[in-house]
Amino acid sequence: MFSAALIHDTASEGIDSVLPLMPYIDWTRYYRAFDMDTFELMNMLRDWAAEDGLSDSERTSRYTSVMTWTRALDGAYADYYASVLGELYEKSEAQFAWSCFGYLTDEQQDEVIYLLAYDLGIDSDEMRGILMSVLDE
Description:
By secondary structure, the protein is mainly alpha-helical. 74% of the residues lie in helices and 0% in strands. The longest helix is centred in the middle third of the chain and has 17 residues, at 75-91. The chain is globular and about 45 Å long. It starts with a helix and ends with a helix.
């Protein structure tokens, strides 16, 4: 069961504390309860996933996690999460593509590709093609 307050309170303890709760996030309910703190949580996730010095497998795992935590994104928060995905893509296109096509369901892939394409200002089909070509390299 989702608890915005539990996630919010746990996030104040740091990223390692909040990670086990993230599969249950409902962004709409979270930002209704905590508004601007939503950006802070998204930044924490971005920083965790983009941490320097990770092995390829650890980066793929973290990217995959962030890609699956998109339930109920809307409005400005969806735009911001799209920018988080854009930053992760720019940090490691190969790990991003591998995470997307290697570990996400078709529905999750569509959502992530849509958000990334939105951030980069291109069509979703074009973005899908770019990601697939990265895997062919």
